[in-house]
Amino acid sequence: MVGMIFAAGLGTRLKPLTDTMPKALLPLAGKPLLQWQVEQLREAGVSDIIVNVHHFADMIIDTIRANDGWGCRIEVSDERDELLETGGGLRKAITGQGLQGADEPILACNVDILSNIRIRELVDRYARSGVSQLVVSERQTQRYLCFDATDRLCGWTNIATGELKGHEGRHLAFSGMQLLSPEALQQLQQKPAGKFSLIAFYLDHMNDLPLQAFVPTDYRMMDVGKIDQLADAERFAESL
Prior knowledge:
Elements: E1 2-6, E2 27-28, E3 31-32, H1 33-43, E4 48-53, H2 57-66, E5 73-78, H3 85-96, E6 106-110, E7 113-115, H4 119-129, E8 132-137, E9 143-147, E10 153-158, E11 163-166, E12 170-180, H5 182-189, H6 198-205, E13 211-214, E14 221-223, H7 230-239
């Protein structure tokens, strides 16, 4: 299994900090966000990781090299020419460099979401089912993924606007992590190159590609995305 960390974002909600540094290198409890994610993947047995870069790309690359990848083999997918979002970024990593194919599952996560997830439980669920797993939780938000009685993705909804794509079902909030099967990755490779989100890809293929909800036990998470939440994020990181 290979890991991927989405670290190419502009971090606009974290300005002015991200005027001089990438979001991925924001320090929390003495470690940059990127290190938190790498170490979490490493503890779950993932030693080969790809990191996509765009905003202050050289700073991220230099930090990875200076720390010898924090014990992992890390390759970089360069998006300096165009920021591709999660779907386009993962497609580029598979087809263009680094991962070089989609013959094994990929565990992909956002650099700015900290959590206490036990990734080995996620990996075990995938090993038993062979079905792609989307990490979700029962938290309050405006946008939800919808899952049917078998925990298979069947839709998406924005409860603030009433928008619905697909079908209604159990509302669960996406947590920025997924373990994708080779079948899903092969479908992803068929998409035209360019900018698109993984959520859009999932909704396009939910009828022909099984995508299952994974709800971690005793789950706590925090999206480190806003400047006014950094004090809370620091306390959260210290508690992990």
